């Protein structure tokens, strides 16, 4: 009988173990399912965080790009403004030089009629004329060389032509009105007579 009871006990133990594993299996399966869901959720959470970081990174990149573009635009604006200022200054200075040149012409005409040293008043006018020319030279106004030079339409304005065999072709033989340049820009062309 002891043997039977031992066999029965073994059978019962096996059955109990099977029942326990069956009961435990659904619990572990449920736990496994729950843990899988939690893993998926955590992965989704990480993905969401990564996506959020990506969106933030994109916003940061966009803002950085915007700032860089605005800085470049401002730099271009500053350069353009400086160029415009210098051009405005050159235009204003050229306009003033154009208005002063008739005064220089009148000095030259008046002093051409008077002999040097004959009249103290004329000597004073000559000194003022020389001072005016010096000042114009210091600010960048230079007379255009004309007589004896080859005719250049960029600098000379031909108002007369003369046939002269002694002088070469297209050579300026006489200057009626002096031309001037301001910083490599022609303010007034020289009025000249050209030999053909």
Defining key terms:
about 200 residues; alpha+beta; three-stranded antiparallel sheet; 6 strands; about 65% helix; about 15% strand; rod-shaped
What does this 3D model show about the protein?
The protein has 196 residues and is an alpha+beta fold. Helix content is 66%, strand content 15%. The chain has helices spanning 2-112, 120-138, and strands at 141-143, 156-162, 171-177, 180-182, 185-188, 190-195. Strand 4 (180-182) and strand 5 (185-188) form a beta hairpin. The relative contact order is 0.07. The mean pLDDT is 81.
Write the layout of secondary structure elements.
Blueprint lengths: L1 H111 L7 H19 L2 E3 L12 E7 L8 E7 L2 E3 L2 E4 L1 E6 L1
Parallel strand pairs: 2-6
Antiparallel strand pairs: 1-4, 3-6, 4-5
Helix pairs in contact: 1-2
- From the alpha-carbon coordinates, what is the Rg to the nearest angstrom? 51 Å
Mean pLDDT: 81
Number of strands: 6
Please trace the helix and strand order, writing H or E for each element: HHEEEEEE
| Largest sheet properties | 3 strands, antiparallel
Strand order of the largest sheet: 1-4-5
What would you call the shape? rod-shaped
Percent of residues in helices comes to 55-70%
Short description:
The protein has 196 residues and is α+β, with helices and mostly antiparallel strands. It has 2 helices and 6 strands.
């Amino acid at each position: 009988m002891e043997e039977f009871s031992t066999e029965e006990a073994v059978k019962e133990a096996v059955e109990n173990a099977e029942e326990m594993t069956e009961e435990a299996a659904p619990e572990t399966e449920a736990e496994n399912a729950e843990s899988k869901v939690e893993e998926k959720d955590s992965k989704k959470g990480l993905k969401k965080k990564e996506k959020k970081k990506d969106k933030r990174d994109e916003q940061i990149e966009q803002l950085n790009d915007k700032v860089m573009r605005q800085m470049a635009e401002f730099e271009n604006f500053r350069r353009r403004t400086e160029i415009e200022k210098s051009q405005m200054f050159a235009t204003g200075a050229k306009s003033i030089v154009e208005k002063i040149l008739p005064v220089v012409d009148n000095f030259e005409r008046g002093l051409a009629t008077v002999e040097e040293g004959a009249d103290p008043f004329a000597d004073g006018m000559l000194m003022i004329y020389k001072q005016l020319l010096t000042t114009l030279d210091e600010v960048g106004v230079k007379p255009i060389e004309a007589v004896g030079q080859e005719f250049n339409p960029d600098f000379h304005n031909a108002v007369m032509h003369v046939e002269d065999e002694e002088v070469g072709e297209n050579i300026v033989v006489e200057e009626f009105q002096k031309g001037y340049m301001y910083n490599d820009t022609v303010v007034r062309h020289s009025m000249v007579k050209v030999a053909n």
